[in-house]
Amino acid sequence: MVGMTEDGRDGTVPGYRDTTALDLRRGTPVRDVPAPSSAVEPAAGARVHETTAIEPGAMPPPPAAAEPAPPRSVEQHLDEILSAVPQPDPIELAVLDAQGLLCAEEVVSQRALPAFDQAALDGYAARAMDVEGASPAEPARLSVVGETVAGPTGPASIGPGMAQKVAAGAMLPAGADVVVPAVWTDGGMAEVAVHAGPDVGSYVRRAGDDVAPGTTAVQVGTPIGPAQISLLAAVGRDRVQVRPRPRVAVLSAGSELVDISTQPGPGQVVDVNSYALAAAARDAGAEAYRWGILPTEPRRLSEVLESQLLRSDLLLIAGTFASEGDVVQEALAELGPLQFSQLTMHPGPVQAFGRLGRDSVPVICVPGEPVAALVAFEVFVRPAIRMMLGKRQLFRRTVQAIAAERLLSPLGYRQYLHGQVMRHPDGGYVVEPLGDGSGSSEEAMLARMARANCLVVVDEDVTEVAAGGLVTVIPLLLGG
After folding, report:
1. Cα 304 to Cα 357: distance, rounded to the nearest angstrom
2. Which residue in 45, 172, 186, 258 is deepest, having the highest Cβ count within 10 Å?
3. For 62, which DSSP code?
4. 177 Cβ contact partners less than 8 Å away, ≥ 6 residues apart
5. pTM to 2 decimals?
6. pLDDT over 90 for what percent of the chain?
């Protein structure tokens, strides 16, 4: 065993070690530097220790400590993530499978919609000049020469003084330029009395009125919902190019974790994060895969990470990482650069991001505490997923609300508190924090979080919001 000095340093003579440790108090990577060698001349302008030569057997002076990196703002960390996440290439899906995704092609119709002149409602097809000026006192009387219903039919036509009974969607007979609603008539079978005369073209759908051949039916970037699926089917498209759902693998790190089917023992906790974050990713629109608890055996751990990087567009890891000797950090470091940072936010200030593996897959590490993990997801991961989906609106809409209670927040940190927002009887919104308003016990309260419908945001330069003051609120709408 290597001896330790009283100040906690290794008792051996320091040499070159190409390792990176993490000071979790600061979130600062600290790299050991090589001890100075007398055989190497210092570079011009380099700082030189003013010391005499080291006597044989004496311990060289320790290397100068690296300056701690300043905490990063929420915006800096978010910008780094959003600038690095890719947009997956478009794929072709069946129209029903494309629901909820963005159209990735300009769908040009080869058909006219409607394909023929048709009645817009049940009534009588007639000539506008024959019913002009009709009224209940002086109705226009027309001979009914037939009836047409929706469906295949042969050609039909009407002349002066004639009408044809038609159903909604039925082909309009030649010569007709108006449909008189049935409620404006006496409903006659051989002869019909018309009590009001609509203008030319009333209650008639002309061929191509909706979509003409060669025009765009669905544009690039249009969200595909029931109405778009209806239109795609009408123009004859059963498949369409879309922005696919990003594949997100969700993993949990920590030797203290057990699965939900296991009764936790002393010091153990149930793996909540892989379930909660997978559900959050699906709600954001991703195709989420829940791996679960990462193994602690180094070789198996590396295999799992590499396999998930191959199958995913984004890797999401929740865990509490040790400052030194953490097997997950070491395994991740072998796959590429991953930077842990101290962020000016609470809860969960220590987080990480990098692009790892052969395909430089984005990897986001969020805190292991479940409430902090879901807050970090809302702030960083959800916008990344929406960007990968091609959404224009990356962030949830915010509202200004009146604080029902006094709120406290640490200076220099952006505080995210769970709360319940509701409409104020006099207009606007009022928000009630779920807790004491200080966030001190916020991190551990899962039941409290489950009752919340919003996040209350207190900016970095605000330490107190009085009851009745205005705060920014992020409503947590499912699928929103």
Report:
1. 12
2. 172
3. P
4. 127, 128, 200, 201, 204
5. 0.75
6. 75
How far apart are the C-alpha atoms of 357 and 308, rounded to whole Å?
A: 10
Pairing of strands 140-148, 162-166: parallel
State the Cα–Cα distance between residues 409 and 187, nearest whole angstrom.
Answer: 74
Residue 259 near residue 275, CB atoms below 8 Å:
no
In whole angstroms, what separates CA 466 from the centre of its chain? Answer: 33
Q: Where along the chain do its domains lie?
A: 94-110+213-243, 118-205, 247-389, 399-475
> Domain 247-389 has what CATH class?
alpha beta
Show contacts of 144-147: CB within 8 Å, 24+ apart. Answer: 144/188, 144/189, 144/190, 144/191, 144/192, 146/173
Nearest to 404 by CA among 470, 323, 474: 470
Specify the residue for token string 């990356």: 394
Banded pLDDT at 440 (limits 50, 70, 90)? low
374: left (phi over 0), alpha (psi -120 to 50) or beta: alpha
pLDDT of amino acid 427: 85
pLDDT at 24 over 90: no
Q: What is the mean pLDDT of the chain?
A: 85
Side-chain half-sphere CA neighbours of 432 within 13 A: 8
Length of the chain (residues): 480
End-to-end alpha carbon distance in the chain? 55
Helix or strand run (H / E) with residue 361: strand 361-366
Q: CATH number of 118-205: 3.40.630.30, 3.60.15.10, 2.170.190.11, 3.10.20.30?
A: 2.170.190.11
- Of 22, 67, 77, whose CA–CA distance to 344 is shortest? 77
**What CATH number does the domain located at 399-475 have?**
2.40.340.10
Q: Give me 106's structure tokens.
A: 């300009």
> Among positive and negative, which fits the CA dihedral 118, 121, 127, 129?
negative
Give 113-136 pLDDT, tens digit per residue. 999 999 999 999 999 999 999 999
Q: What is the pLDDT of residue 477?
A: 85
Range name among 20-34, 252-266, 295-309 with the lowest pLDDT average: 20-34
Q: What pLDDT is attached to residue 420?
A: 95
DSSP labels, 145-201: EEEE-SS-----B--TTEEEEE-TTPBPPBT--EEEEGGGB---SSEEEES--PPTT
| pLDDT for 404 beyond 70 | yes
Give per-residue pLDDT as tens, 197-215. 999 999 999 999 999 999 9
CA distance 275 to 291: 9
